[in-house]
Amino acid sequence: MLKRLGALVTALGAALVLLLGTAGPAAAHAALVTTDPAQNSVLPQAPAAVTLTFSEGVSLSSDSVRVLSPAGKQVDAGDPGHLDGRTDTARVSLNSGLPNGTYTVAWRAVSEDSHPVGGAFTFSIGAPSATSVSTGALQNARADSLVAAVYGLGRVVAYASFALLAGVAAFVLICWPKGAAVRSVQRLLMTGWIGLLAATVAVLLLRGPYERGSGISVAFDLSLVRSTLEERIGTALSSRLLLLAAGGVFLSLLVGQLGQSDASAPDDAEGTEATEGAAARTGAAGPTGDAEEDELRRLERLAADRPQRDARLGLGIAGLVLATALAATWAAADHAAVGIQVWLALPLGILHLLAMAFWLGGLATLVVGLRNGLPVAAVERFSKLALGAVSALAATGLYQSWRGVGSWGALVDTEYGRLLLVKIGCVVAMVGVAWISRAWVARLRTGAAAEGATEDFAEAEGTAEVTAPVGVGASAGADGADGSPVDPGTADEADDPVRQAQLARQQAARRTASVQRAQDGPPARAGLRRSVLVESAVAVVVLVVTTLLTNSPPGRVAQAATGGSATAPPNSGATGASTAPGKTVELKISYDTGGRTPNARGTATVTLSPASAGPNTVKLSLDDSSGKPAEVPELQLAFTLPDRDLGPLPASLNAEGPGRWSGTAQLPLTGDWVVSVTVRSSDIDQSTEVKSLKIG
Is 399 found in the same domain as 533? Predict the structure, then answer.
């Protein structure tokens, strides 16, 4: 078994290396491609409008694009829209008569995968100047912290509720039909349905404030709700509400058909062996030796069980269609709906959600069922099916990782990659605990067989005792006047109230212990319940991380859109530089693209003058490991101010010779900037390195 597990892990690791090593470009979360006016450009006269072009279609609101003067005053007409109806553009008109100076464009939109994106850049009219754009104006490109927290909580609850609703129903239909009559299982089903309904409504109401960065007080603004319903995610949420209405009907049929059926009928999970075993002990319906009569009885049992089997089949098909449609409301409005291989990503995303729901919802049912007489055969059946669900999760998760990350560097350089590593760690922990649970299942099966043999032996002995003569025992133990047995000292104890109270307490303690043992079951059942509880706790963490992943731009997109600097902390890499205005600062940044050519590794030297807010002269030299100028196919230099959510602002560079460039960079504000240098040494080898720079 360990060899097979090792082979599986090796195969998955090899596939991951192959996929990440051959990843190509993809899109998800819209990235700003071009702007008109261009970033950092200096125009001789004021433009009539500002136009932004994105990598994919975006949805716009009334304040999606704002243009701010050097004094921080909004100077646009407040009419953002799509240029010539192209959904991948955003255009806003400017007021006439704008004076010279540096203007900041802050933008926010919703990409096709339903996630809000935002940023800012600058351009100048006449000549660059200092600007005093307020922090609050730029931070409006972010969601309100309270709205973001409640919105994220709603998404977590939605995932967990879907797992309960779909997973518990699947467990009942496949493994434990009589579980539909158990109140605890019914409560799990209703909790999943109500939780998903409430979370969907909450996400629908909070979507508008979340997109626009406004407070929670406008959550009930009908105009925002109407705008949300016109978006892709609004369509998905409204469809989910309609499907939940059908889900309510499905639950009533599930409980009504299976919960009200013959309670004495054995579960299919127990099989006909349980029925025949019980019949053999009672002698009522066991094999008679007559083949024709035995076959007749078997057909009678099949005919009696047919209505329940037909009900389970119909409910199973309806439940599968309903669960698939519910899962599609996530996949159709998330990362899977855009980018490469959408035709494959959508069905695999749905399969990933269904496998997750069956595993996690089944665990919840297992915890409840172990306290409510869940048959051992049902536990074994779920254990086998859960292994298939985990395999589906691993396969689809591997594909999603390749599609979202795209490179090994993105695993550690982007928020998406780091969250993915956390999720992988949690899933590995869950699989480890699940392996322990399978060991408990084996012990439970062995214990059940031994318990059945003990019961048969006890029944045989009890029968022997009943048929034995009782007169001998009675006369041997009788020494009283009336012929009844009297234990020495019994007469005195019968009259002692203290002794009677002690006996009563002992009997009560024995009854309590018996009830507790009956509830907890044998040690193997209690051990399985504990391991499943641990597995379920880790599953909650996985759901939280999954929600954070869906709210984060995929790793390859984050690197492509920001050059790797937006997610890098200000102090990452080598020690940064602190400058005083009017001085020249020099930054040395080591790079390594991982290639084998001479230009694949070396040092980039960035010189900035006067290193102050406003226009700066930039010189960049690139030397290989031997100190010689390095020629590369592509080099980019950008500046980001994370505290103000400003940038990346690319520097305009002109080649001056092998490994030498010069140009200008517009830094509109003072603060802790992040300088990023992207070097591409070949068609496939590229690296982005960062270093902090304090201006002012």
Answer: yes
Report how far residue 102's alpha carbon sits from residue 646's, in angstroms, rounded to the nearest whole number.
14
Interval 125-148 mean pLDDT: 69
- Give the integer Cα–Cα distance in Å for 222 and 228: 10
Q: For residue 121, what is the domain's CATH number?
A: 2.60.40.1220
Say if residue 584 is in the same domain as residue 690.
yes
Residues 602, 670 within the same domain:
yes
Cα–Cα distance measured from residue 551 to residue 173, given in angstroms and rounded to the nearest whole number = 34
Q: Are 228 and 234 contacting, i.e. CB atoms less than 8 angstroms apart?
A: yes
- Choose the final residue of a domain: 118, 139, 160: 139
The Cα–Cα gap between 339 and 112 comes to 10
Average the pLDDT over 625-638 and give the result.
88
**Same structural domain for residues 548 and 574?**
no
For residues 535 and 427, what is the distance between their CA atoms, to the nearest angstrom? 10
Report pLDDT for 201. 95
Instruction: Report the distance separating Cα 269 and Cα 258, nearest Å.
Output: 14
Tokens matching residue 163: 């797992």
Radius of gyration of the chain measured on its C-alpha atoms: 35
- Our count of domains for the chain comes to 3
Closest CA to 525 of 359, 378, 376, 380: 376
- For the entire predicted model, the pTM comes to 0.60
Q: What is the mean pLDDT of residues 91-95?
A: 93
Q: What integer is the mean pLDDT of 167-192?
A: 92
Q: Do residues 645 and 118 lie in contact, with contact meaning Cβ atoms separated by under 8 Å? A: yes
| β-pair type (116-125, 42-43) | parallel
Q: Do 218 and 224 form a contact (C-beta atoms < 8 A)? A: yes
d(CA 44, CA 46): 7
In this predicted model, what pLDDT tens digit does every residue of 8-26 receive, in sequence order?
344 434 433 333 333 333 3
Does residue 519 fall inside a structural domain? no
* pLDDT bucket at 63, cuts 50 / 70 / 90: confident
Q: For the chain, give the percent of residues with pLDDT over 70.
A: 70
Tell me how far apart the alpha carbons of residues 666 and 221 are, in angstroms, rounded to a whole number.
40
Mean pLDDT of 591-610: 88
Domain boundary among 139, 165, 199: 139
Cβ proximity of 150 and 348 under 8 Å: no
Q: Residue 134 sits in which domain range?
A: 32-139
Q: Which two tokens stand for residue 31?
A: 């990235």
**Residues 52, 190: one domain?**
no
Lowest-pLDDT choice from 308-312, 532-536, 604-608: 532-536
pLDDT of residue 573: 36
Same domain, residue pair 124 and 197? no
Euclidean distance between CA atoms 686 and 592, whole angstroms:
8
Nearest Cα neighbor of 122 from 616, 621, 679 is 616
Instruction: Give the list of residues 6+ apart from residue 200 with CB closer than 8 angstroms, or none.
Output: 158, 237, 240, 241, 244
- Work out the number of other CB atoms within 10 angstroms of the CB of residue 86: 12
Contact (Cβ atoms closer than 8 angstroms) between residue 346 and residue 331 = yes
Please give the residue that has the higher pLDDT: either 67 or 210. Answer: 67
**Do 410 and 372 belong to one domain?**
yes
